[in-house]
Amino acid sequence: MEASSLRPEVRSLAEMKIPIGPQHPALKEPVGFMVNVEGERIKSLDLDVSYNHRGIEKGVEQRDFNQALYLIERICGICSHAHATNFAKGVEELMNLEIPKRAAYIRLIVGELERIHSHYLWVGVAGHEIGFDTLFMYTWRDRELVQDLLEIISGNRVNYAINCLGGVRRDLNEKTIKLALDHLKKLGERAAYYTQLATTEETMVDRLSGVGKLPYEKAKSLGSVGPTARGSGVDSDVRRDDPYLAYPEVPFKVITANNCDVLGRTIVRAGELAQSIEMTKWALENLPPGEIKKAPPRSAPPGEVISRYEAPRGELVHYIKSNNTDKADRFGVRTPTMANWPSVVEGLTGQNIADIPIVVAAIDPCLSCTSRTTFVDIDRHKSWVWNWDELRNYSIRWYKENKGIYWGD
Amino acid sequence: MTDENPMLAVVKQDLGSKAVEVTAPRRKRMIIAATPETYRDIIKYLQDKMDCYHLSVLQGVDNRTNFEVVYHFWSDRNGMFTVKVALPHDKPAIGTITDIVPAAILYEREVHDLFGIEFPGHPDMRRLLLNDEWPKDEHPLRKDWKMDEKKFYGGVKSSTGGEKSG
């Protein structure tokens, strides 16, 4: 690593710089942090996201629209459907192709199931980072129900590949719909329980409130998106404000919270779980009949389109420029995690070292496994290395000893 | 998808000669072509009058004869506004907007990294996405960029023979 790429500014002997990452086990996708601390307090934070550039934007320019669709699906393992759908609807807009209604509904159903599994995953990870592993076990067990459903609907557990240009690849039959409604009933009961837990369980409320402060004004000016913005009271949701697929027809509420901290983000996600479950149910019950796909033209006329999608982590933007060929001339992606990094920096400044895991996890970033954290003590000229687990254990111990927050072994 | 954008006439009239061209492909979408002299005024106008609080992203485009920087601003009320600024292919540069739009801080670094477009005035212009061993002055999203087999682009160096890109 080039020394200047992470630039700690050490001003006094009491200050320390702590590099964290680049490998990170909370989720996938590696990122490096250089944290500048004075005692327990974080004074400033710098980040390096250069470890996982795969050149997909360039790759898309060299593939035709059909091939690109499946490459784009692999941008993210958790919200693969978000990327594929956003690209497909953008290209269809360029081609002036309207997809059959049933296809729009099936895309929406898979999209909302994806949000449910992603939010369940997040609640579990958040529980794990604060030492509440029982919650992790519960939510990941429930998440299996959604994963099973996605596999039955699409044939795949991770990259569903349900989309094709002009519609969807597979239809839903009566048996699948019945099974899905059964599963969703169970999931709805669990979601209600988690909502109650996030808002009333005393230890959890104590641990999460006031942590990772992101005031409303900052959330707006730093361009935060998704549950991170909505947890700070920013009332925006692409599904409602810039509707696509069948969202104008499906009734739902946009959940916001005014806590402006990690608790707010948790409340928003728990609320969205319940909303998504209801939306999926409604879409399954009101699924319009008809065909599921139309043949797309090979090429798109010259033009440009900006395609937006409310991914589980927030607003996802694709910019697609076509030039009358079967390839995109320019394909630009802005993922929600990218938009939320400045809010992590804002949320961690002034906080404790012990809050790093949960504040980083609170934007639900796409990060990666096996982390090493080096602690450098400038004062004593020594350094030591912590991996993410040790940092997490330290965090849990610190809260146990200083705040009395502990869920037991 | 063919419905009209009701704001088109208003924006056209307000911007007058500041905008080179204003078009609206559909409702909630508007594309404003600007120049390096007027883009800041237009962005301020969008913030003040059109309620554009959110910079969705800013991106670079290589049109082979020139570069474009494309700013996408979102307003809950009026939809998406795309501001395009054309820059010369030789030494492209455009002043930073981080002073009026703090959210641009990472996006400008990304465009600088991948397209080699300079943003004078940016407070912290370092590499963002490419690794530290990536050769200087190589910007992979430029259309004329080709990987040089002899150069090292980061990753693991091969122990046998020459350097390999990972």
Q: What pair of chains forms the biggest interface?
A: A-B, 39 and 38 residues
CATH architecture of the largest domain in chain A: Orthogonal Bundle
Overall body shape of chain A:
globular
CATH homologous superfamily descriptor of the largest domain in chain A: Cytochrome-c3 Hydrogenase, chain B
CATH-defined superfamily of the largest domain in chain B: NADH:ubiquinone oxidoreductase Nqo5 subunit
The count of DSSP E runs of length 2 or more, i.e. the number of strands of chain A, is 10
CATH domain class of the largest domain in chain A: Mainly Alpha
Series of secondary-structure elements of chain A, N-terminal to C-terminal:
EEEHHHHHEEHHHHHHEEEHHEEH
Helix content of chain B: 10-25%
Quaternary structure classification:
heterodimer
Write the CATH fold name of the largest domain in chain B.
Beta Polymerase, domain 2
The third-level CATH topology of the largest domain in chain A is Cytochrome-c3 Hydrogenase, chain B
The CA-CA distance between the termini of chain B, in Å, is: 44 Å
- Helix tally of chain B equals 3
| Secondary structural class of chain B | alpha+beta
Q: Please give the radius of gyration of chain B in angstroms.
A: 19 Å
Structural account:
The complex is a heterodimer of chains A (409) and B (166). Chain A has 409 residues and is of the alpha+beta class. In chain A, β9 and β10 (382-387) form a beta hairpin. Chain A has helices at residues 56-61, 65-72, 80-95, 101-129, 133-154, 174-200, 202-208, 216-221, 226-230, 238-241, 262-285, 336-348, 356-362, 388-403; strands at residues 15-20, 32-38, 41-48, 163-164, 167-168, 303-311, 314-322, 328-334, 372-377, 382-387. The longest helix of chain A is centred in the first third of the chain and has 29 residues, at 101-129. Chain A has 2 domains: 3-52 and 338-403, no CATH class; 56-211 and 285-334, Orthogonal Bundle (Cytochrome-c3 Hydrogenase, chain B). In chain A, α2 (65-72) packs antiparallel against α3 and α4 (101-129) packs antiparallel against α13 (356-362). Chain B has 166 residues and is of the alpha+beta class. Chain B folds into 2 domains: 8-115, Beta Polymerase, domain 2 (2-Layer Sandwich), CATH 3.30.460.80; 130-166, no CATH class. Chain B is built from 3 helices and 5 strands. The model of chain B is unreliable at 161-166 (pLDDT under 50). Classes of the chains: A alpha+beta (409), B alpha+beta (166). Chain A binds chain B through residues 1-2, 4-5, 7, 49-51, 53, 55, 57-58, 93, 96, 98, 220-223, 235-236, 241-242, 303-306, 308, 315, 317, 319, 321, 330, 332, 334, 338-339, 341-342, and chain B through 1, 25, 28-29, 31, 53-57, 59-62, 70, 72, 74, 76, 79-80, 82, 101-103, 105-107, 110, 114, 126-132, 140-141.
